[in-house]
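I am still getting used to backbone structure tokens and would like to learn alongside you. Please make up or recall a protein chain and show it to me in full. Would you write everything just below, so we can both look at the same thing?
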Amino acid sequence: MNPQAPVYVRREDDAWLTVVYYHFHAWSGRRPFWAGLFTLLGGFPIAYFPYADLRLGNVTMAMATTGGAGALIIGVLLITLGLALWFQQTIRVFAGVAAILLALVSIPVSNLGGFFVGFILSMIGGALALAWVPGQPVEEPQRPAGVEMGKAEAVATAQGPQGFPGQRGTETPVHESETTAHADGGRNSAG
């Protein structure tokens, strides 16, 4: 969610579904919602497939493995991490790393990570959790008219967006008579 986006203000003629949608959109925009959803969904196939059975008429095919308890633990942990990403977004780095590690461990333990479905969903969820950063609104200081900047303020305004250094001038003065080969003490640069 863009921190500069306008805030939804409820009007009297709005339907309740519109109100619910905008409240959900505001809630999901302040947390790693998609990371939690992918991690949560990745835990279900990992926990389910070792205990699943397939019935074909009177024949029951069961997948009985020794990794059933391990798969259940991994699946429950991934579901818990997905919920934790929704409600405790401050642990996003820990939850992202843990989701990726649990997804990798699920390959040998839980039927190839829930036949790669749970593995891929958990890896995507963990990566999204690591990549998510909460938005900060940009506030520009208001300066009264006629007040000049000090040296520290001039350096701060020379920086680009988000505190990164801005474009620098040339290190040595370039005169009109000099060509590019002679500029900057005779050193050439490609670009």
